[in-house]
Design a protein that fits this description.
Helix 5 crosses helix 22 and helix 23 packs antiparallel against helix 24. By secondary structure, this protein is α/β, with parallel strands linked by helices. The chain contains 25 helices and 13 strands.
């Protein structure tokens, strides 16, 4: 918003379109360099003059016209200083609208997001958190930007791992144990299979035979498969409910079983399939990629076959304009191959697919491995986080009502924010104690800041709905400079400017497909509000001053709650 307004002020003095000016404008790192900076390099070529000379001339022209903006040349930069008394109310009023930050940038476009995708009969470990919460945050941001969003949980309910599990169950399974603790017992069987196969390689052949039977409709194989699927989905749904994550569709890989034949037939028709050591592959030498395996030597399908069918279904049947796959970086080659095969098939969806990789998550230095049984159950981590959050909250505020619910919000929020604040490609070594701190770059810090703002509003007798009504009624604009003189201090002004950048933060997070952009924005906003809170008296004897400052606090409370919601966190009004 601030950049848009600064571009309007600058527009009469340069030969650039409005959007190009906005793209070039920068927010200086400190107040001494102005509120907005315009680099004059873009004008140097057409004007055939040095950028510093252009900046000096622009400053003279703008100051000569007595605009509500003071211009100052600093080398090749034109620094703009807005008149705070006039601009503060203009910034404040739109911040209080309940839909501030929303846009229609993506109107008419449908985005299908593939996220979470745990495997049946395996634990929902902390490693699944990244895909789930990164994908969920992106879905929320796309929605408020006008896109039609469809979220799909692509459950891993097919493949040779089921053959391994069935063979392990046949040899060492105990039905009573499986009913008592289905996920942990199935994990134990899966781990034992991989331990035993080191001594008996024929187990792999038996596992492949079981999967072949499953793909060919064997009754016993199908019964076991359905049993594994049913207890796994109950467990997953319980964890998703706790995380506050919902999906538009939960479609397992098995959903595409009757759609893979058409893909294989089309590849044959296009003469793209070649035999390689008894298997059927599509060669991708022209893409600099190894061959993509379509059918194994025993004729069974594999991941690429199902993902080809999936992409075509999402494009043709679900009407996706953009298909996003929030899947770990270790699958980069797989998706490059799948997208390349779609391109060779002449399918337009090839240009609409985008893999959004992310780095590994370690927990206190440990890397997870299902085959070795090195899995940290997410549910256990959530329980520990909530218990620790409750202990901290009880010490800080022993009289707090609903402390358990607040602890649930803070504990789970700490884990989610502790993930999302990092660039998604970074490898994360997660520390629960660090994530639960109420100071520093943490979720509890942002939540506590929002609660502080809500507490101020309660003391001052102002609600968010009342603040929005004041904004819409024109009362803030009518107060004009009277409000402006109470918000012209450095801390209040910096807080206002930070809030005004919220729409741009969402747009940039979408452009980069990077929730950390929004998380970092919320951290910065919280820091600026806390500086304002500590440096200025907000509840004063002057009614008009108190009103202006409470409205700023209302804008902070509203925006932090909005931003945390987009990231998948709750915002308690008291902590």
């Amino acid at each position: 918003m601030l950049l848009q307004w600064a571009a309007v002020q600058l527009q009469p003095y340069v030969t650039l379109e409005h959007e190009e000016i906005v793209r070039l404008l920068e927010l200086p790192p400190n107040l001494e360099l102005g509120d907005v900076a315009f680099p004059c390099f873009a004008l140097a070529r057409t004007l055939k003059r040095a950028p510093a000379a252009i900046a000096e001339e622009l400053a003279q022209r703008m100051n000569g016209d007595q605009q509500p903006v003071r211009a100052e040349a600093k080398g090749p930069y034109l620094n703009l200083f807005l008149q705070r008394e006039e601009w503060a109310p203009k910034l404040l009023a739109p911040l209080l609208a309940s839909d501030f930050g929303q846009s229609q940038a993506g109107a008419g476009q449908r985005v299908i997001i593939d996220l979470s995708s745990p495997n049946i009969a395996k634990p929902f470990g902390v490693g699944h958190l990244r895909s789930t919460m990164i994908g969920n945050a992106l879905a929320q941001m796309y929605r408020v930007s006008g896109y039609e969003v469809v979220t799909v949980n692509h459950i891993g309910d097919w493949g040779t791992q089921f053959g391994k599990l069935m063979e392990a169950y046949r040899r060492w399974g105990d039905e009573a144990k499986l009913k008592e603790a289905p996920i942990k017992e199935s994990l134990s069987l899966y781990v034992r299979f991989h331990e035993e196969v080191e001594r008996d390689a024929t187990l792999e052949d038996e596992a492949r035979r079981w999967f072949w039977k499953l793909e060919n409709g064997d009754e016993e194989a199908h019964r076991l498969w359905q049993y594994f699927v049913s207890f796994s989905m109950e467990e997953f749904d319980r964890v998703y409910a706790r995380l506050g994550v919902k999906f538009d569709y939960t479609l397992g890989e098995s959903f595409y079983n009757d759609k893979m034949g058409a893909v294989v037939d089309r590849l044959k028709e296009l003469q793209l399939l070649e035999e390689s050591n008894g298997a059927q592959v599509v060669r991708l030498d022209d893409e600099g990629l190894p061959p993509c395996l379509i059918l194994k030597t025993d004729g069974t399908t594999i991941y690429p076959t199902r993902d080809l069918a999936t992409a075509l279904y999402r494009k043709k049947e679900m009407g996706g304009d953009l298909l996003l796959y929030v899947v770990g970086a270790e699958q980069k080659l797989h998706f490059n191959q799948v997208f390349a095969v779609l391109k060779h098939m002449g399918e337009e969806v090839a240009d609409d697919c985008l893999h959004l990789p992310f780095g590994l998550m370690k927990f206190d230095g440990r890397k997870m491995s299902t085959r070795k049984g090195q899995v940290i159950f997410l549910d256990e981590v959530l329980d520990e986080a909530v218990a620790k959050a409750l202990a901290i909250i009880s010490e800080k505020n022993p009289e707090l009502e609903g402390a358990q619910d607040v602890a649930e919000a803070v504990g789970i929020g700490a884990i989610v924010f502790g993930d999302l604040k990092h660039h998604r490609m970074l490898e994360i070594d997660f520390s629960l104690d660090e994530a639960l701190r109420f100071e520093g770059e943490t979720g509890p810090y942002v939540q506590y800041t929002a609660a502080r703002a809500f507490k101020l509003l309660e003391k001052g007798g102002l609600s968010l709905s009342e603040a929005e009504v004041l904004s819409q009624s024109g009362a803030i604009a009518a107060a004009g400079g009277r409000y402006g003189q109470h918000l012209n201090g450095a801390a209040a002004w910096e807080c206002l400017k930070a809030l005004a950048a919220y729409p741009e933060a969402i747009a940039e997070a979408i452009r980069q497909h990077e929730p950390s952009v929004l998380a970092r924005f919320l951290l910065d906003t919280a820091k600026r509000f806390n500086r304002f809170y500590h440096q200025e008296r907000i509840l004063t004897e002057n009614e008009e001053e108190t009103s202006a400052k409470l409205l700023l606090a209302a804008a902070v409370a509203s925006l932090l709650r909005s931003g945390l919601t987009l990231l998948g966190l709750k915002t308690p009004t008291q902590i």
